[in-house]
Amino acid sequence: MRLRWSTESWTGENLVLTEGTRKVGVLRTSALSTSKIQFHGEEIDLKFRSTGIWKTRLEVFHQHELLGVLEIGSSGGRFTTVNKVRFDWKTNFWGGSPAWVNARGVKQVLFKSETVWSSSSGSILIRDEVPSVLGVALAVAGLLCQRQLMAGLLAGLG
């Protein structure tokens, strides 16, 4: 599955995911809170609930059922499904070439934007063996991880 993302608003808080001309859904975030992250689409509805002291651990729900847990750190992330399947967020030194990698080291979901620093639009390739709901959840989780990574890199430059 090949998706595209683009910003819906000038704030960049809402990202639209499309597959060709079909709108898959909208990721709604708040720059001020990790507790207000939702993805709404016709077929896939995801909600993210923050847990833990530092709010870097997000439980991911699909239609009110726990799908997995996303842990976001300053240098990457990890998504673990309820079945204990783990995906690690990998990038190069500069935060480019982001991808979700499985336990065997195979890239399962790959991201590409116009530039490393751009989060306003890009494409996502989800390998065929990844189920569609999990693939979209990883796509959304990857956009959240990349946003966190870029915020950390920019803060380090200041």
Distinctive features:
globular, alpha+beta, single chain, twelve-stranded antiparallel barrel, 158 residues
Characterise the protein shown here:
This protein is α+β, with helices and mostly antiparallel strands and 158 residues long. It has one domain: Porin, CATH 2.40.160. Helix content is 16%, strand content 49%. It has one helix spanning 132-157; strands at 2-7, 14-19, 22-30, 33-40, 45-51, 57-62, 65-73, 76-81, 86-90, 99-101, 107-113, 121-126. Strands 1-2-3-4-5-6-7-8-9-10-11-12 form a twelve-stranded antiparallel barrel. The longest helix is centred in the C-terminal third of the chain and has 26 residues, at 132-157. The model is unreliable at 153-158 (pLDDT under 50).
Structural class by helix and strand composition: alpha+beta
Radius of gyration: 14 Å
Please indicate the percent range of residues in DSSP E strands (runs of 2 or more). Answer: over 45%
Strand order of the largest sheet: 1-2-3-4-5-6-7-8-9-10-11-12
Total beta-strand segments? 12
Number of DSSP helices? Answer: 1
Oligomer: single chain
Describe, in short, the structure shown.
It is built from 1 helix and 12 strands, in the order ββββββββββββα. The protein is an alpha+beta fold and 158 residues long. Strand 5 and strand 6 form a beta hairpin.
